[in-house]
């Protein structure tokens, strides 16, 4: 069994859903050494999240942002946690709904994503800053 791990600092992105598959793959080239395994990508933040979804049509990512903005609105007077602005608590809720990690099988040295699947950075803050990922791959 081999285990590889790498930190990846993503550049700051605007609020929305951004494809980061190639950045993840490029950050851990040792994936190519694994015939069979698992890759976990974990984000070290509570106001951004990760997801796997459509990688071809950018309108899907726009619709994700529209849906989550409607489902978890800003400026709700019931929020107690608002020290960092109106997007703060909604960002935490969205991150809790989507999750902090994705797990992808490795097959023949590649991420076994479907043809139309990609890894999203889901940035829920207007000014979230750079984001840190921990990428871990293990297998044989």
UniProtKB/TrEMBL annotation:
Pfam families on file? YjbQ (PF01894)
Membrane-spanning residues where?
Answer: none
Q: Which NCBIfam families does this entry report, sorted A to Z? A: TIGR00149_YjbQ (TIGR00149)
Which family is this sequence assigned to?
Belongs to the UPF0047 family.
- PANTHER family from the entry? UNCHARACTERIZED PROTEIN YJBQ-RELATED (PTHR30615), UPF0047 PROTEIN C4A8.02C (PTHR30615:SF8)
Q: What is this protein called?
A: YjbQ family protein
- UniProt organism field: Mucilaginibacter celer
